[in-house]
Amino acid sequence: MPEADRLAALVAAVGAFHLTDRAMRAAQDRIERTLAAGAPDEAAARAYLDAVRRYFTPYEREAQGQLKHVDRELERLYQLQYNLTAERGVVAKRVEAVRGVLDALAELRP
Fold it and tell me: Which is nearest to 54 in space by CA: 12, 21, 16?
């Protein structure tokens, strides 16, 4: 894929995000206008790429942190589910044993 096509694909991918940062929004608008008018020069492309890097790098770190947090919570929930399943098995056996005693008692009492 030629460099201009790759830049256009990146611009489209970034444009799909809801950009709230003024500087990133301005860089996105500039590059979109530049692409509509033809191929951007090296300086315009570099400025855009720098803006994208500044904007998205912190989000990646934040998303990685969130992913680790969710993974830890899932691990905790899986362990809780495992423990509760084991506990349920113990309680079910107890209920079965108690039911056996009560059934035996019922047979002995007229």
Answer: 21
Q: What's the rounded Cα separation, in Å, for the pair 90 and 105?
A: 23
| pLDDT of amino acid 2 | 60
The end-to-end CA distance of the chain, in Å, is 90
Identity of the amino acid at 86: A
CA–CA distance from 39 to each of 35, 59, 64 (Å)?
5, 29, 34
Q: What are the DSSP calls for 34-91, one per residue? A: HHHHSPPPHHHHHHHHHHHHHHHHHHHHHHHHHHHHHHHHHHHHHHHHHHHHHHHHHH
Q: Considering the entire predicted model, what is its pTM?
A: 0.67
